[in-house]
Amino acid sequence: MGLYEGVSAIDDIVFENCSLPPPASSCKGPDQFWCTDTRACISSLLVCDLIDDCGDMSDESNCIKKFLLEFLFNVFNPYFLSASELQCDFEDGLCNWAQDTEDDFDWTRHQGQTPTLDTGPMKDHTLGTVRGHYLYIETSEPQMYRNQAILLSPEIDATINNDNKTCIFLFHYHMFGSQIYSLAIYKRTMRNTRGQLLWQAFGNKGNRWLKKVLYINSTYPFQVIFCIFPFNNHVTYVVSTAVV
């Protein structure tokens, strides 16, 4: 047995803005949600966002049966999918989302660490464990520069048909690797087009999940599109989508 010497040290540990919201004596207003057990008062935008903002999971507990109907209003009419049907954490497949049949390659549903060294998350965002699922793309060979992988939402009703209530779309993404290129979100109102660019991210964002919220208005029914443009030897990911 060898003898090894070494020193490990930590100093000046500080937590800032890390605690849960304190209990509130009241929580009134259409834009507020009162947590069941912790009694914290949080923004309704945090309800059903796939994160336990209350500390007791009450803001995430009824999302399938009653997804934001009391808090953000339902911007969808009966001829279109409800908000709960548009939400997806990829634990049971792609939900109502779909792979584009006209792109160059597909997204892959995966658990745990990604196959390529020094890329990707160790675990998913929703469960925070290696058992959780997420979608990712592998853009090393045989994929080529400017090939595309496209993920399509179902058709969503025009917001103008619902008193112009804004559609709120949130997702978590992970972009980590040596040569990350681009993840883009589009809104399209006509098939076989890419539509309007809503948001785009470039480059390595570090080995962490990031949250993005987009506010969408449309005078016509529309789809949301995730589009990946690869560069070289990297992977890019998206997980936990919700349209509310």
From TrEMBL:
Segments forming domain MAM: 86-226
Any single Gene Ontology cellular-component annotation: membrane
Xref: Gene3D superfamilies: 2.60.120.200, Low-density Lipoprotein Receptor (4.10.400.10)
Domain of life of the source: Eukaryota
UniProt KW keywords: Disulfide bond, Repeat
PANTHER family: APICAL ENDOSOMAL GLYCOPROTEIN PRECURSOR, MAM AND LDL-RECEPTOR CLASS A DOMAIN-CONTAINING PROTEIN 1
Protein name as annotated: MAM domain-containing protein
Source organism per UniProt: Aquarana catesbeiana (American bullfrog)
